[in-house]
Amino acid sequence: MTLPLHEALKQSPWQNQPVPHDAASWIQRADEVAAILAVDALERDRAAEIATHEVRLLKDAGLTTILGPTQFGGGSQSWQTALQIIQVVSAADASVGQLLGYHLLWAWAVRLVGTDDQIAAVEQLYTSENLFFGGAVNPRDSDLNIEDAGDHLIYTGQKSFSTGARVSDLVVLEGTLPDGAHVFAIVPTAQDGIEFLGNWDNLGQRLSESGGIKITGVEVDWAGAAGYVNKEFQPLVYNTLNVPLIQQIFTAIYLGIAEGALRTAGTYTRDRSRAWPYSTDPKDSASAEAHVLETYGDLRAKLWAAQALAKSVDEEISLILHADREALTAGQRGLIAVRVAASKQVASTVALEVTNRIFEVTGARATSNAVGLDIYWRNIRTHSLHDPVAFKRREVGEYELLGLLPEPSWYT
Predict the structure, then answer these.
(1) How many whole angstroms from its chain centre is CA 221?
(2) Where are the domains of the chain?
């Protein structure tokens, strides 16, 4: 029998087990993590405690280092596998899926913008010590201010959202120098200049630790300014892949939510829903009713289609992310951005439909708080507002009709 998270953590289920050696065994490991999270996901959502135990579970399972180099204890897996794992975890607990997805993004940030030496140092550090990442890079807020103090930089400012940072070991900062130049840096989370506001109190994704953060006088050596050599940034088209990547992470979270919702609703319908007796063709069980079967068939077909599109885009973006950084062209970057936009819009739409319509085939009693089917709708409704999906549809429309590719921005 699978135990609730707090009980399962008393002794790591993977203690003395080797690191998974291939994609299939990593996905199996993710399934094991998901089984633990699913037991008490609703109770933990309602308690809304700081996600310390959830992060420990991810670390114990090794999912935090699946992209890290093998020589330092990591999995050296592809982003295609990582995105599938995010989807598996999100089906059980979307908040934890979000924490994992954002961690993996920020762990990859040094590859996106760093120098070769910075990449080597950061990947050895976080992989060998199994450190967890958060980020303070919300672009809708004013940038953090950066002062150039000679041999080091000083960051100061505030961000409304900082997913994962409160439970992190390392946090990614982004700000601007007086001349407008942007600088990313990775700093230890536990320091006096970093304060968490503890104000994440939202409809869904309650354990994603997405509240505000205040930065006061955090110092970073110029050597830690990602992608800078002698105070000059070394630009690559590859630097701009952070947005397509995080948008595809969103797709994985959304599809995970939809999968979890459909799976849970199906169990409820089979075990607890009652047939409607006032019918010209009454059935003995709800599972035999035509409208119930039609609805489940419709939702499953749509979810399969969304998953198939996402799987294709996962493979495409993974190939780009693991290829030569200097070889990426603006055209290739634009094409993957529009493919990601298509994948995300479909996933968002399908997940919203699934999490809404499951109530039509579970019945009035399924709205009980004791059942908790609302967690899926609350989670997708909350996160799908991250940036307007209408703009993703427009990007795809501009490509289809006008042959235009999205220009890199904080959201494309």
Answers:
(1) 29
(2) 5-132, 135-233, 237-402
